[in-house]
Please model this.
Amino acid sequence: RINEKRLWDTLMEMGDIGGTEKGGCNRLAGTDLDKQSRDLFVSWCKACGCNVEVDKIGNIFARRPGKYNDLPAVGTGSHLDTQPTGGKFDGVFGVLSGVEVLRTLHDNNIETPTAMEFSVWTNEEGSRFQPAMQGSGTYVGRFDLETELNKTDVNGIRLGDELERIGYLGEMELGSRNMGAFFEAHIEQGPILEDEKKAIGIVRLGQGIRWYNIEVIGRPSHSGTTPMHLRKDAMLAAASIVTEMNAIALRHENGLGTVGFMQVWPNSRNTIPGNVKFSADLRNPRPDILLTMHEELIAFCEKIAKEHDLDVNIDPFWYFAPVEFNASDDVKAATEKLGYSHMDIYAGAGHDACYMADLVPTGMIFTPCLNGISHNEAEYSSPEECAAGANVLLHTMLEASER
Amino acid sequence: RINEKRLWDTLMEMGDIGGTEKGGCNRLAGTDLDKQSRDLFVSWCKACGCNVEVDKIGNIFARRPGKYNDLPAVGTGSHLDTQPTGGKFDGVFGVLSGVEVLRTLHDNNIETPTAMEFSVWTNEEGSRFQPAMQGSGTYVGRFDLETELNKTDVNGIRLGDELERIGYLGEMELGSRNMGAFFEAHIEQGPILEDEKKAIGIVRLGQGIRWYNIEVIGRPSHSGTTPMHLRKDAMLAAASIVTEMNAIALRHENGLGTVGFMQVWPNSRNTIPGNVKFSADLRNPRPDILLTMHEELIAFCEKIAKEHDLDVNIDPFWYFAPVEFNASDDVKAATEKLGYSHMDIYAGAGHDACYMADLVPTGMIFTPCLNGISHNEAEYSSPEECAAGANVLLHTMLEASER
Ligand SMILES: NC(=O)NCCC(=O)O
Ligand SMILES: NC(=O)NCCC(=O)O
Model:
C-alpha cells in the first residue's frame, strides 16, 4: 500500500506552486511556475534513483530500472499545468500518484520485472496554448512537432520559446520510449462517482471533443448614431452563436457545448463591435452524434452570417475522436483485488492517456471529487480518495510488470 | 469665409497624431498621443495671440480678446480624443473649425465685440474612461471632480494621474470661464444629412443615453465534465442579455441598444466562464421611452439571474437626459444667410455642447459624413462639407458676439 499522508503532503507542496488565495492553483503551461513544478518532480524522481530525460516537446520521463531492462517498461503519468482557475488535483494527482508509487517501490527495495516510467506531459490543459493534450498528442505523432512549437498564446509568445526559456526543450526523440503499457490516475472532474458512492471509476472511454476558433467580422460604428437596421454588430452575432452552442448541446443526448474564451474588438462601449473572436467546445461520447453537433454548428454560423450580413469564419482546428481504453480490465482487476467499490465510467475531459492509447495498452483510474467540480479553485479530493487511486495505480502497474 | 484648404490641412496634420494605416485615428484620452494633439492645438492658438488656460479636469480654454472684455465671451469647442477605431473628424472637426475661425479673425484683423473662446474638452469619447463628455460634464458641475479624477481605465490607471503625466492637470476652477454662449460644430456621425442631401444639420436635441456596467457571476467549471443542467455559465447568461439589448431597441421607436465592451474570466476555452463583465448602452430621444427601455433591461437581468441561478449585478452609472439646444435659431440664421441647404436634426451621440447647454445658450452645427459611418477608421467628411460647417460656425459666433 502507498503512504496516504506522504501522497497528500506532496499534493499540498506541489499545490503551493501557483497556489491561489482560494486554495486553487494557477500554473499555466510554459510559465515560471510550470518550471518550478517540473523541477520539483525531477528532484523527487532523482532522489529515488531515476534517470530523467526530456523530449522535443518538453515531456519529462523518469525511469526506474527493473530486472529485465530490455523489456518494455510500464508507464504512468499526467500533467502539472493547470487552468487559470485550476485546482490542486487535476493532472497533478496523476503525476504525484506516480511519484508515490515510485517512492513505495524505492522504500521497499522492490525490484520490478520491467522498468517503470513516470512522466509529465506538456500543456495538457490547452488553456494557454491549443489544443489540449499537446505534449502527449505530439509524442504519439498526432500533431506535427514544428507546428506545435510554433503555437502562440494570446500575447503571441511561442510555446517553443517558453519551453526553451524554462529549460524544458529537450533533445529526446518523440515516441522513442520503450514502454509496453500506460496507466493514468486522475480525479473524475465530474459528479458521478460521488453520486454513486464509488471509490474508483474504471474508465472505459474518453469522449469525443471538437474545438473551434470562431471569428465574427462585422463593422465597427457608433452606438448612438447607427440605426439598428444598418448595423453589422459582431457582438450580437456572436451572442447568437453562444446561445446556439447551448441549444445544440441540449438537443443531443450527453451533448456538451461551451464558449469559454472571447475577445472583443475594439472593445469600446460606444462602438458597435467590429470583430469578436471566441472559442467553441463541443463534446459527445458518440462520434456520430458529435458529427451531427458539428454540422449543426457550421450550418448555424452560415445562417447567422447571412442574417446579419457579415462574415463568420469558423476554424475546426481540433477533433479528438472518442477512444476506448483497452487495458481497463487490468485496472478493474487491481481495484477488485484491493476491495475498493467501483464502476465503469467514461471520461468527459481529454487526458494524456487518451493519446497514449494510440501506442500501447492503456487504462485510466478515476477518483471522486467534491461536488464534481473541476477547473475551479474549489476542486477537492480527500486524502483517502487520493490514496485509493494511488493504491490501484500501484497494483495495476505491478501486475502489468509481472506479465 | 474661412479658408477651406487650411482647415483641411489642419485636419490632416492633427489626424497624423495617432493616425492608423486605414486612415483613421486611435488617440485615447490621457495618452501621449492626446498630449501631442493638445500641444499642437495650444501652439496654434498661441500663434494667433490667445491666452491659454487649463482647468482642474484638463479642459483647455484659449481666449482671443474682443472690444469689451468684461462681456461674456462667445465660445466654441469639442474634443481631440478618439475611439480606438476612430476617424479623423469626430470631435477634431469641431476643435479645428474653432481654430479656423480664430485664424480667419486673426488674419483679417477683426476685432469682435466680445472675446472668443476656443476649447478642448477632456475625454469626450468615454472609451478609455467613463462616462463620455467627462470633461464638459465635470466643468458644468454634473460630475464630482474627485470622483472623475479617480476613475480608472481597464488597467487600473487613474485619469488624474494620466492628466498630470501629460501636463494637462490644470489649476483653473471648474465653471469659471466668463462665457455667454456656446456653439459646437460636429460631423453628424449618422446617415441622415447625406440621405437628405443637406449641407448643414440644425441640431435641436441631444438624445437620452443610459450606460450600464453589468457583471454576471456564475461558477467556473470544466467544459467536458459539467453536465448542462449543473452549469452556472456566465457567458451563456451574458449572451442572453446581449440578445435582449437588441430586442429592447427594436421594440421601441428610435430605440438603440449596444454591447460594445466585454471581459470574460478566466477566459480559458475549457473552463465555463465564471464571470463576464460587459457594458450596455441604451438610447432614445424620448425620456419616457428610454425609461421603459431601462426598466425592461433591469427586469430582464433579474429574470436571467433566476433562470440561470447565478448573480447579475447591473450598475446604471450614467443617465444623460435628452437636452434641447436653445440657441439653434442662431445657427439656422447663419446657415440661411450663407445659403447652405439645411434641416433640423437630433444628435444620436452625446457632445460637449450637451452639457454646456446647462450653463449658457447653446447650439450645434452638424455636417454630413460618408455613409453615416463614425467610430470607424473609414469616417470621412469632404473638404467642402467641413468648410460649410466652419463657415456657419464663424458667422454664428460673429452674430452672437454682435448682440
Ligand atoms: N483533464 C483535463 O481537464 N484536461 C483538459 C482538456 C479538456 O478536456 O478540455
Ligand atoms: N461624439 C461622440 O461620438 N461622442 C461619444 C459619446 C457617445 O455618444 O457615446
In short: The longest strand of chain A covers residues 208-217.
